[in-house]
Amino acid sequence: xxxxxxxxxxxxxxxxxxxxxxxxxxxxxxxxxxxxxxxxxxxxxxxxxxxxxxxxxxxxxxxxxxxxxxxxxxxxxxxxxxxxxxxxxxxxxxxxxxxxxxxxxxxxxxxxxxxxxxxxxxxxxxxxxxxxxxxxxxxxxxxxxxxxxxxxxxxxxxxxxxxxxxxxxxxxxxxxxxxxxxxxxxxxxxxxxxxxxxxxxxxxxxxxxxxxxxxxxxxxxxxxxxxxxxxxxxxxxxxxxxxxxxxxxxxxxxxxxxxxxxxxxxxxxxxxxxxxxxxxxxxxxxxxxxxxxxxxxxxxxxxxxxxxxxxxxxxxx
Length: 317
What we know:
Elements: H1 2-10, E1 22-26, E2 32-37, H2 46-51, E3 62-67, H3 79-85, E4 90-95, H4 105-112, E5 116-119, H5 123-129, H6 131-139, E6 143-150, H7 169-179, E7 184-188, H8 189-195, E8 211-216, H9 225-228, E9 233-237, H10 241-249, E10 253-257, H11 262-271, E11 276-279, H12 283-291, E12 297-302
Parallel strand pairs: 3-4, 4-5, 6-11, 6-12, 7-8, 7-11, 8-9, 9-10
Antiparallel strand pairs: 1-2, 1-3
């Protein structure tokens, strides 16, 4: 199971919005026969990757999987039916899938088919592997990480607004790489206008680039990088939603109505298949999300320096 965990972790988060899963097939003596992990959303699941080359399985073979096999039709067929067709006799799983469409139903289907199923092996470790997945499944909105580069006294800029650069070159490179670990990246309108960011990873040669998102009152300034970017983009419109919807579509930007509040807009993003969101906005956006209790992870790059100005902006207001 530890090997299966390491396999699942090696994929990073490219399978989102699906969970990270690893699978190891061993014989009666414990020798590894095959292995697999879920690499990309829409691609084969870990169980399929591990067993795809077997026309028939050795009778005493055991498959170790970090997460309960799915039993419903999604972008791929149910893994439970695949395992039954392969005539697998012994299955060991780490933890149940929290998704209500699966939770316990996959195990029940396999036992019903006569399979010997053991569950709860390294259960805590297997659950922690998918902390993001578990949280967004439970709350119905993306897993949200708030990132900021701050001084020791918690400031993100001078009182004058000057902010380049609080942290080091190494920290900024790491922050770029961090962007590829999330499906989407969000800023507020004020940051969009002040910094004109590109919201991408320019360090790695072929990373997953996050989907850019802006939240706030809609505006159109075609010269900004956000409007020039060819990626699919979203604008969480806090007002004048209808007036700007069609105009934004010309720039491949889909407007999402969040006049009912940020939480409503985030739930709409979840419905669009966005499971993880890195927030790089300024103090106003950060404080708003923290106040609403919507932040799941806080990522602070702390520089060994003091700004020392009472009116300098803090990272959360």
